[in-house]
Amino acid sequence: MAATTLQEPPVTLELAREHGMTDEEYAWMVEKLGRTPTFTELGIYSVMWSEHCSYKNSIAVLKTLPREGDALLVGAGEENAGLVDIGDGLAVAFKIESHNHPSAVEPYQGAATGVGGIQRDIFTMGARPICSLNSLRFGPLDNPRVRYLFDGVVRGIGDYGNSFGVPTVAGEVYFDPSYEGNPLVNAMSVGVVKVGQTASAIATGVGNAVYIVGSATGRDGIHGATFASEEISEASEAKRPSVQVGDPFTEKLLLEATLEAIRAGVVVGIQDMGAAGLTCSSCEMSAKGGAGMELHVDRVPQREAGMTPYEIMLSESQERMLVVCKPEHEETLRAIFEKWDLHAARLGHVTDDGRVKVYWHGELVADVPAEHLVLGGGAPVYHRETRRPAYLDQTAAFDLATVPDLDVADAAPALLQLLGSPNIASKRWVFEQYDTMVRTNTVAGPGPSDAAVVRIKGSRKGLAVKTDCNGRYVYLNPRKGGQIAVAEAARNVVCAGGKPLAITNCLNFGNPYKPEVYWVFKEAVGGMGEACRALGTPVTGGNVSFYNENPTGAVFPTPTIGMLGLVEDVERHTTTAAFQAEGDVILLLSPAAWQHRNDLGGSEYLAALHGLTAGDAPHFVLDEEKAVQEALLGLIRAGLVRSAHDVSDGGLAVCLAESVIFS
Asked: Under CATH, which architecture does the 62-197+386-662 domain have?
């Protein structure tokens, strides 16, 4: 490639290190290009080979998860979201992703853009979002910084979701010292589409036009993917410009324009510009289609003066899409987006050479092989060193007999203390900031239902959806904790009257270069896989968020599960936890071989009343769990159950108390 006249910094190994690349990765890049990269090319490689985009430290482990099922219409990771056939010619697109690092430095915008980004993943596939969920983790509420983060995150989720017009119907909030300084903000979206009317994130057809549509591009979010691929430190506050800024009203326009364009048949391929922006969408679409692209990025609508091609390619400005369409459909495509008062600018066209070529006022500033950049192609894949953490010997050696017995006189005060602990207490302050009823499809929302139930209009069917994970269990027993995370999410869906179909996941862990962290990661994923196979809930995709650490240490390993279930008849089968009538019989449904065990390890009782995180996760057998869930679902469908509530945080005492309170 000829030298450019554009004034860019000379690329050196030291500059590559500053971009988060290792010495080996820099050497691979130079070898593949056959020359020293340009500054723009370095930026492209650094974000595409970041952990956030390449999954280089996790993909080998993720491939061990069950990723096939009769109802799955696309494989895990093949599209922007998972797609599940629910019958009657309908499919559900759903996905969960993290926005942890942005929310740690700018909680309002970090959380808001997390909501916006996951919605785009859904409607980019042609599905209309029908509900949102979230899963949140914070440090103790007596810390002013934690209260600031908590308030900002909840307001960000509420303001964006409410303005966008999709109900936030379910979620979970946990507090623990391990999350202090590094909150977890996981956002999930669910949408419905007719089978056969979906769009794909692919670039095909030599000569087809490539358009950028939606908002103008600014400097917000540059290197956001790289920022998400490193530990949070005192220097992270200086990376506030790496946090994107969202506009839910523009996103609403983009939703309608995108769905109209897909229905009009003018879209060959389309992808949201999320992490790494134009770089990621152009490279991934090209690689998937075995094609290339020629992009003239000076044509990108810009909202800031003096932007460089490096900045334009790496910007993560929100509410933007990359669209491929046939030349004969360009006028229609432009008319649709302009009708919705959105930009639609032609950047170039699809080529057959497999390379993404970036031009700046006619000058070639980047020429990179798409396949070499992407996950599943030439992006690095690492198998990290593992070591069983020493702390597990200490926690496993804990003797529950050292915990004082609870006197009868102290039982009621202890229950009240449990009910008042932040992890069990009502989250009404949170969900009252969310519009849970917009679009009028919410049958069971936050509060008395173990999972949310959302009606599919024009059908008797509904969707039961839930996010769930007990990070304390995973910390104490990673494999069993991973199993329980899947099982409890499925159990919640069953308690609401739904049949679990599939999961999406958001795997929140510490630094993968630490052998103990990677051992826990592999064990937890192994447990998840075992539970998914046993319960028949394949993995449709999701997200890995590493580097959730701060100067005080790593967060609890938190593999958040987003569970999708189908309620065959929302009027007859939807079930809540609230007791319905005096005189109803209260039963504890359990395996036939069940016996009482002193399962206080990792319990909220130990944590809230004794300040302890110790012992083993509760006794758990997958076959028994499956039998209980199948039995309960059968009883609900037979009309024999008036309410159902799973026994989890706080045990049977809290379970019964909550059913009374909900009544």
From this structure: 2-Layer Sandwich (3.30)
Residue closest to 649 by CA, chosen among 617, 604, 599, 607? 604
Distance CA 174, CA 430 (A): 12
Cα→Cα distances 544→62, 257, 367, 521, 548, Å: 9, 30, 29, 10, 11
Asked if residues 94 and 554 have their Cβ atoms less than 8 Å apart, the reply is no
Percentage above 70 pLDDT, the chain: 96
Residue 138 near residue 427 (C-beta atoms within 8 A): no
Q: What is the pLDDT of residues 529-584, one digit of tens each?
A: 999 999 999 999 989 999 999 777 889 999 999 999 999 999 999 999 999 999 99
**Whether the Cβ atoms of residue 504 and residue 94 lie closer than 8 Å to each other:** yes
Check: CB of residue 283 under 8 Å from CB of residue 45: no
Catalytic residue among 52, 223, 329, 645: 52
How many other CB atoms sit within 10 Å of the CB of residue 197? 15
Query: What are the DSSP calls for 260-320, one per residue?
Result: HHHHTT--SEEEE--TTHHHHHHHHHHHHHT-EEEEEGGGS-BSSTT--HHHHHH---SSE
Which of these is catalytic: 99, 223, 296, 329? 99
Amino acid letter, residue 37 = P
Q: Strand pairing of 128-138 and 168-175?
A: parallel
Residues 52, 53, 54, 59, CA torsion sign: positive
CA distance 262 to 28: 39
pLDDT at 103: 95
b (16+ CB within 10 A) / e for 560-579:
bbbbbbbbbebeebbbbbbb
99 is catalytic: yes
For domain 38-48+199-373, the question of CATH label 3.90.650.10 is answered with yes
Residues forming CATH 3.90.650.10 domain(s) in the chain: 38-48+199-373
